[in-house]
């Protein structure tokens, strides 16, 4: 028997099932109103299609790798040394000069093999600035500008006032080690006003003494590389001896103080990485104790470079037998026997001695005048040691 099919009521229009929103009112159509069919919204494009339709961003070309710098004599060139070498054209333009310590800085466009001497100077400035390329570049540019203005190499051929600077400074090269020394003899100052009163004149002489010592390093013909920062000692440095024999530490001449301060600034700014060791000799014991107290607050690297000796003869134990005999060595008898490293004006001509006429009888019987007492030589005031 067939199952009875019940009539199905037509569904209520979908429009009446939608609850009107606040912004839209939906009404069911009346018989008098035609039903308007709205087209269904277009489906959202697929992600793949939208990505394909969007314009493509321009691709940035990869930065071209810089060619590696090489120098067979130098060995591996560190990234920072290569970086400052590539800045050299700009540095030379800023400084308007190309020579440092007798070495001509060279940069050849498109060359990948820097000159050995150029690397030597650049490495010195990098080490002096803790391997900071920016600071090293600035100091080198400033040094070039200073050398362009002051022309320190010319100070070696300039005659300096003998009466002001004779006996104050010497240069020595130790034969066994090749170590270069500069001797600063403060007790030899005869007239503080003449020696330190003209600051420009004093600086010209002091710079000449430094350049004379640097010339002994012969950097232009060097063959041994300088190690990278914190990788070893710089073999091209100078040791200084400051002798305070017959110098008073109780007072400070203002001209000497100003000259010393200016010298320190010049050496700090324009002669970086040049100091190996510094010896203070013939220093009174009390000053030695004071120095030892100050070492507690000085940087370790500075303390390692300074030595204070109360007796000059102790210097031979530090530097060897080649130092002068007055410093305990077996070299020349006195430091002045090393000769003047800086050109000085001609010595005054000695007065010609003439034979005195024989005294007359009247003169013989005349009472001889009492000789005036000879004044003791003044003790020099201690200047501040230069850097």
Q: Can you tell me about this structure?
A:
There is one protein chain. The protein is of the alpha/beta class and 387 residues long. Among the domains are: 79-150, no CATH class; 152-346, CRAL-TRIO lipid binding domain (Phosphatidylinositol Transfer Protein Sec14p, 3-Layer(aba) Sandwich), CATH 3.40.525.10. The chain is 32% helix and 9% strand. The protein contains 13 helices and 9 strands. The protein has a 5-stranded mixed β-sheet. The chain has a two-stranded antiparallel sheet with strand order 1-2. A two-stranded parallel sheet has the order 6-9. β3 and β4 form a beta hairpin. α8 crosses α9. The N and C termini lie far apart (126 Å). The model is unreliable at 1-39, 47-52, 351-355 and 360-379 (pLDDT under 50).
């Amino acid at each position: 028997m067939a199952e009875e099919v019940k009539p199905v009521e037509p569904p209520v229009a979908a429009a009446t099932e939608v609850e009107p929103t606040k912004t839209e009112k939906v009404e069911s159509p009346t018989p008098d109103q035609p039903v308007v069919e709205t087209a269904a919204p277009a489906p959202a494009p697929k992600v793949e299609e939208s990505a394909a339709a969007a314009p493509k961003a321009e691709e940035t070309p990869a930065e071209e790798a810089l060619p590696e710098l090489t120098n067979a004599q130098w060995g591996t060139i560190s990234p920072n040394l290569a970086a400052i070498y590539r800045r050299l054209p700009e540095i030379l333009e800023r400084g308007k000069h190309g020579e440092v310590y007798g070495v001509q800085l060279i940069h050849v466009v498109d060359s990948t093999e820097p000159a050995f001497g150029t690397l030597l100077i650049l490495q010195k400035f990098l080490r002096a600035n803790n391997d900071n390329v920016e600071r090293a570049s600035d100091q080198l540019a400033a040094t070039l500008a200073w050398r362009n203005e002051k022309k320190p190499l010319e100070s070696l051929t300039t005659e300096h006032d003998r009466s002001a600077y004779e006996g104050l400074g010497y240069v020595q090269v130790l034969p066994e080690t090749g170590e270069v020394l500069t001797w600063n003899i403060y007790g030899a100052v005869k007239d503080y006003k003449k020696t330190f009163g003209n600051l420009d004149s004093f600086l010209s002489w002091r710079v000449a003494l430094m350049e004379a010592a640097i010339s002994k390093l012969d950097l232009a013909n060097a063959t041994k590389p300088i190690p990278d920062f914190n990788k070893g000692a710089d073999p091209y440095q100078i040791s200084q001896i400051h002798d305070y024999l017959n110098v008073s530490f109780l007072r400070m001449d203002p001209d000497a103080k100003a000259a010393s301060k200016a010298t320190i600034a010049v050496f700090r700014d324009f002669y970086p990485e040049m100091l190996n060791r510094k010896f203070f000799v013939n220093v009174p014991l009390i000053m030695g104790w004071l120095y030892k107290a100050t070492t507690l607050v000085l940087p370790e690297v500075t303390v390692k470079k300074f030595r204070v000796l109360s007796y000059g003869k102790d210097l031979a134990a530090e530097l060897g037998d080649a130092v002068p005999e007055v410093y305990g060595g077996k070299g020349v008898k006195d430091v002045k026997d090393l000769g003047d490293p800086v050109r000085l004006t001609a010595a005054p001509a000695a007065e010609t001695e003439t034979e005195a006429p024989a005294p007359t009888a009247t003169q013989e019987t005349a009472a001889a005048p009492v000789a005036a007492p000879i004044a003791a030589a003044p003790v020099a005031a201690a200047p501040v040691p230069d850097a």
